[in-house]
């Protein structure tokens, strides 16, 4: 089994989900007392969130690149950046390390391809929904068209993430609003909807809707488990 590196803390609420999914995945595959071999650094999200709001992606990239090198030095054999939004600085992270970088959008795009999905909805932070780094990768690498919510809906999705989910707050009214937005994306032709923020799966799960949902945290962790086991 190879050792998985995790760069987390963005937020720690969803990093917990990664840790659980990785260990559950390894144990399901190997049984007994087996668990994942993990090296993890969890950053202080307050610093990262400030840089996000300031639009200072260069400094954020430098911080995460530095943390990634520490993870590699500690013995990790691949790296997971446990956040969708901060894949905006994935090139800075990748260029700082020698080990494989498992991109979250690739894990998602591969799932879309397996399911024959060519048009998908995307909800996440406003950075992920509005900037090109995620949508363009899905289009260029996998031929997938991406539909995003309208401006008001994007603001609501973003606010719920930062004001509630990153603080571990789960509200039924927010879930209902997300489900309305998911339905709207489906009505615009999305065959499935990507939960493109690692916190969203804490609020919305597949049993809440018949519209196919892609939990990026689960997909990313599953890809890492396959890699760790050499599959």
TrEMBL record:
A Pfam cross-reference name: Asp_Glu_race
GO function terms (MF aspect): amino-acid racemase activity
Sorted UniProt keywords: Isomerase
InterPro entries: Asp/Glu/hydantoin_racemase (IPR015942), Asp/Glu_race (IPR001920), Asp_race (IPR004380)
The UniProt record lists the keyword Isomerase: yes
Similarity comment: Belongs to the aspartate/glutamate racemases family.
PANTHER family: ASPARTATE-GLUTAMATE RACEMASE FAMILY, GLUTAMATE RACEMASE
Protein known as: Aspartate/glutamate racemase family protein
Species annotation: Halomonas qinghailakensis
Lineage: Bacteria, Pseudomonadati, Pseudomonadota, Gammaproteobacteria, Oceanospirillales
